[in-house]
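The passage that follows is intended for readers who have already worked through the single-chain material. We present the inputs for a multi-component assembly, then the predicted structure in tokenized form, and finally a short commentary. You are encouraged to pause after the input and sketch how you expect the pieces to fit together before reading on.
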Amino acid sequence: MSTTTTAQTHPRGIFHKAGSLRAERRWALWSAYISLVIAAIIMLAPPAYMLLTSIKTSAEIADLSGNPWWVRSPTFENYWALINNAMFRGFFWNSVKVTIAVVTLSMVISVLAAFALGRMRFWGSQFLATGVFLTYLVPDTLLFIPLYQIVGGLGLLDNAWGLVLVYPTLTVPFCTWIMIGYFASIPKELDEAALIDGANWLQMLTRIFIPVALPGIIAATIFAFTVSWAAFVYPTAFITSPSEMPMTIGVVSQLIRGDTFAWGQLMAGALLAALPPVVVYAFLMDYYIAGLTAGATKG
Amino acid sequence: MAQVSLRKVVKAYEGGVQAVKGIDLEIADHEFVVLVGPSGCGKSTTLRMIAGLEEITGGDIAIGGTVVNDIPPRDRDIAMVFQNYALYPHMSVYDNMAFGLTLRKFPKAEIDKRVKEAARILDITPLLERKPKALSGGQRQRVAMGRAIVRDPKVFLFDEPLSNLDAKLRVQMRTEIKKVHQTVKTTTIYVTHDQVEAMTLADRVVVMNHGVIEQVGPPQVLYHTPATRFVAGFIGSPAMNFIPARLEEASGALRLHLPGGMSVDIPEARTARYRSYAGKDVVFGIRPEHLTDDKPTDKTNPAPMILTPEVIEPMGMETLAHFKLEGAELTARLDPATPAEVGQPLRLIAHMDQMHLIDPTTDKVI
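Having made your guess, compare it with the prediction:
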């Protein structure tokens, strides 16, 4: 009764009509959909155009008449040309071996470092943890000159294995940081229970922390994989022989001859190079999100 | 199984804050001891020092006659149950319980026998294959207890194990814990802030406050003869009533003058004990259950008091009435049949043979 009176006397007061919840929700949904559609168009247009170009013949690509978004005579010749090319298969193999080595090395170092920095309280652990994160903030364009000297000093210039030493400078700090955060979200009573149950630090890590922190470890692994697979600056600087090149620079350096661009094969090569990360993300997306948001909702 | 000794145990943190200030405690073999006190009183720190999860700053802790100050938790032969259960989320109930034994390289058959026996005692046999997330709070706490039992340790340590459970389950689990102790008889140290848990479970209760032990004794002793005002107020629910008063002597008898012009006689049996306080301010302590409605009673030394209830709380088996006496808050336990009404003066009886007098300068019970 009194509420009605107040609402009538003060139509613009705290009881003003704010629109129904359903109407507000409809607006929110519409704006969300519109923004997402625009974002999706911007993000997906380049790969879609790459796909269309990769299934065109060279003649069709060169023909500027007609709609470029329309494929008149689709063909897989660009893909076959690359797959049957031993050098291209070499690029792929180089990427695979470097990535597997980098991911393994990064994860071993990061998990051990994060466990030590996050769980074993020792003098300076906090300082070191911050230091690890600051390392990540140094851009790789700044690092490649000193790294060039180091890799050169080790005799690993123009050698795919040299990259295995270089990429962890990018992956280890970030993966360690993710893992410190993930380990921190595991209640400390779990280590105490394990300590009382008779576990030593290594057993605690392998039997309790790694299985419990698996989503975080997978998130960090995906990150290390992406960085290593997609690296461009370092291999451009350190690798010159085609036999040692990974996909990223191999495709660009071998399919562009002077001012002649083999557009069809370039696009097919780029898409083939992008395939492994897409597959990895598709299968492990849920873990990735769970890993990155860990601790966000816990007190 | 073993006795546990704490001698002059101190825990100080950086900056000089002392959480535990040199406590002494002897716990006998098979005994169930409960450390109780308000938050920050040092009870959990004491337990964690016994477990080896906190380093001790001073003094000695001995388990089974061996000083364990520098022995890591895994070699102290203890088992601990945590407030948040601390079950390993990726392992089944069976593996959770077997984990400690696996690490100690027990033969598989022995592990299986012990896990199944513990599961039988705790009635969790059907849950052995489940993961902790598929269990209710009470079931998780049983698994945590199972993990402790299978180890057959010298000492069980419980750190507020029932605080995360709802009230009904808490009562049920309390009985379970008591049953388990009666079955396995392992020396047990149990930390809680709930005095009802302490009273119901303990062979002896250790009341702690501000890092020191206020009193140690069997629950009934603490209830009937508290040593300090803190213990008197902490043990018993609702808490003891404290009324500022003045003790006067008149022709050999002692009389207690209460606020509001009331006065009550001190029983003859107590006069010798209290005589030295005649003419001084004291605090009169009487439990709500000893401040009851006026009806024929077999208790000796009833002292009448007229009070006006401010709030009446019918509980079914009894009625609690709350009064104010010049600033002092009083509670009385009444018969549910008593026609008590808010604002209507009520004649109550203080059972003076159950009274306590407290010296306000030392807060010690006289």
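Commentary: The radius of gyration of chain A is 26 Å. The beta strands of chain A are 256-257, 260-261. How closely did your sketch match?
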